[in-house]
Amino acid sequence: MSEGEGCPYRAVAIIPAAGQGKRMGAERPKQFLELKGKSILAVTLEAFERAKGICGIVVVVPAQEVAFCEEQIVKRFGLSKVVAVVPGGKRRQDSVRIGLEAAGSDYGLVAVHDGVRPFVNPEFIDKLLSEAAIKGAVVAAVPATDTVKGVDQAGHITKTYDRQKLWLAQTPQVFPYEVLLKAHQRALREGWDEATDDAFLVEQMGVNVTLIEGSPLNIKVTTPSDLILARAIMENW
Ligand code: C5P
Predict the structure, then answer these.
(1) Average pLDDT over residues 72-82
(2) Which of 141, 136, 145 lies closest to 197, judged by CA?
(3) Ligand 1 pocket, Cβ-based, cut-off 6 angstroms
(4) Nearest to 83 by CA among 70, 72, 98
């Protein structure tokens, strides 16, 4: 880990990118599809390379993509902050835990960010780190703009939620390293299975997590229609 002036928070980024991308229906996982000749994962990693407060990056990819990632992404784009490229696990939470363990415990803060969210600003990453240094655990989020309904199995609406109180959680999500590691270890021990983000595991530990308003452009590229949007955003990125 590089120390000193550029590393005030001793912050490491964990980038889970080990999904198989089945919802995209493409031959390769979506994180390796290209936007203007550059893979989505490479665009994501460049933002973390440029964020001043990030001092190390751990990339978690499917086992069969480790060599490709090292050669065609890390080396090719000169990503000097990448300290490890490791094979992921079955669920997203397994991949994040593997990444945390690979990073090692010398870090103070950890920023977890989906490999398939390429439109994250380096300045916003730095803002989240400085907020986390004060508040402890912070999560990028946007206010809900659509009205959210609960439905039963038949598709009938059972509840309409108060939109004023609803936010959509994104990544980056930043935590003290020890807090997130403990949350993941407890989730594994106790078989918590339903986590779709890291904040959920930290919330279960009784830790306060604060939302920080992010950008609606910070989309997760999951489906073919997301890819159309991503290509449009990339034109002006
Ligand atoms: O599953 P979801 O679409 O929410 O995935 C968010 C991120 O988690 C993606 O970047 C995906 O590659 C990653 N992931 C992973 N390991 C898994 C499943 C998903 O790293 N087993």
Answers:
(1) 98
(2) 141
(3) 16-19, 31, 60, 88-92, 95, 114-116, 222
(4) 70
